[in-house]
Structure formats: structure tokens, C-alpha cells
Amino acid sequence: SKAEGRGRFAFFEPALQEAARARRALEFDLRAALALGQFELFYQPKIHLGENCLSGFEALIRWRHPLRGLVRPDDFIPMAEDLGLIIRIGEWVLRAACSEAVNWPEGLSVAVNVAPAQFYTGSLVPAVAAALAASGLPGPRLELEITETALLRNGPEVLRQLAALKALGVKIALDDFGTGYSSLTQLRSFPFDRVKIDRSFADDGVVVRAVAALGTSLGMCVTAEGVETAEQMRRLRQDGCTEAQGYHLSRPVPVPALPGIIRRHLEA
Ligand code: C2E
Ligand code: CA
Ligand code: CA
Ligand code: CA
């Protein structure tokens, strides 16, 4: 009835207002976070399955909020995209990751996640060039992880920028493969160096074998994400993946934990 409807609104409105208020507070904090130095990169090891050796790390951003603690990217990256802050955050990530990776042994590379807006605004290529120049990291030791979303909008312009990145020596990976709509076409639309199979397929042997066969035949490395058990690791190796990443190998770790991981792998 009408009366009940009004009652429901009266009940929910304060909750909605509270949610909107909390969101505005978070937006306010996010605008200041860069200047306050509250962002941090964690690093997750990537393991080469054939040689069982460390091949590098993926940089994953965290926000150390004074009250909320460590905030995961899914809880603030979409907001940063809405607010247009992702461009400057993305530039910070590139600089921080490159200046960290230049300290690692030469064989180890760093993978950085790139938001679609970094392509659309045309800011990515100059930001990558600046981060490489400032750190002295050789281009081939930096890999950019892009998603299908970045490719879909504005196709030809994105492909032109990918070619400019390739000219800097940078490697390009297609991230979260299999979660979009036109996956197979996307895989052929550009000579990616790597395809990363989304973790939702870690237990789907049919999909893993198909993507591994296709990616390998196109000359790409094939990384399985979200490997949580030894059994999954064994099957992914058998199904033709070249690299693995996941909690079974290591969670993303803060910078102080890196020397220990690198040393263990060099000794092994
Ligand atoms: P992604 O690029 O697909 O990164 C993989 C996510 O899966 C990471 O979550 C990682 O911590 C998590 N993960 C790794 N291994 C496992 C596993 O074995 N099991 C499970 N359940 N999860 C695993 P995280 O760090 O919370 O990042 C989430 C997403 O946020 C990333 O997904 C990426 O899309 C985005 N992101 C992270 N850092 C950045 C960044 O610097 N810039 C941009 N634009 N996006 C970022
Ligand atoms: Ca990624
Ligand atoms: Ca992924
Ligand atoms: Ca993802």
C-alpha cells in the first residue's frame, strides 16, 4: 500500500544519506591521499612453471588510510576513475614500481596495472617514458597489464599507443582474459607478450588448455592467476601455462619482504 511505501522510504532514507555521506568523506580523503603519501605498492611473485623460478612481481596498489587501515584497490580504484584521479595515481604507480624494480636482479621484471582512462587521455605513453627515464629501468623489464575494457573503446587509437609502448621496449599483457565478451578477437588484435587467464578459470581445464594453446601459438606467454593449491599448480603446468601467480606461491607482500623472497629464489 501507499502508506507502507512511504514507511519504507522513511526507513531507508537516513541509511542512503549515511551511505552518500560516507562516500563523500572517502572521496575527500582520496583527493588528498596522493599528496599525503598514503599509497603503497605491494608485490606478488610470478613463477615460471617450466624452470620453477621467479620471473618477477606484479605491483598491486594499497591505500594506507589513517582510520580505515589498508584499503584494497577494488574499494577505491573505481572511485579514483570516476573522479579523474586515476591518471595521477597511475603516474605515481609507474614511477614507484620502476624505481623499486631497478634494485632487483636483472632477470626480474615488474608488471604494472593500467586503467583504461590512462589510454583515453593519452597520458600513458609519456608517463611510461618518464618513469623509465627517471628510474633508469630498461623498457623490457616493465610489463603493462591492460584489460579488454581498455581495448574496446577507441580501438585504433589504443592500438597506436600500444605500438608506441612497444617502441619503448615495454612488454604488454592482456589481463583478466576470458571475463570480457570478445576475448578471442581481442587476443588477435595486437601482438601481446602475455595473456593472463582470469582466476575464475583456475579449475577449468578445458578453458585453460584452449587459451594456453591459442596464446602459445600466437607467440605469447600464458600466465595463470589465482593459483591457490598445489594441485591447481600441477594441472596448470600440465595444461600448458608458462607462468603462475597466486596465494599458493605467495600473497602480495610489502617492499621490506622482497629481498628475502628474491634471495630464496636465487639460492634455490
Ligand atoms: P588484478 O590485476 O587481476 O590482480 C589480481 C588480484 O587478485 C589482486 O587483488 C591479488 O591480490 C589477487 N590475488 C592474487 N592471487 C590470488 C589468489 O590466489 N586467490 C585470490 N582469491 N586472489 C588472488 P588486489 O591486489 O586486491 O587488486 C584487485 C584489482 O585492482 C587488480 O586485479 C587490478 O585490476 C586493480 N589494481 C591493483 N593495483 C592497481 C594499480 O596500481 N592500478 C590500477 N589501475 N589498478 C590496480
Ligand atoms: Ca593484473
Ligand atoms: Ca588479473
Ligand atoms: Ca582483475
Automatic annotation (TrEMBL):
Domain of life the protein comes from: Bacteria
Domain EAL: 23-266
Protein name: EAL domain-containing protein
Residues of the full protein shown: 179 to 446 of 454
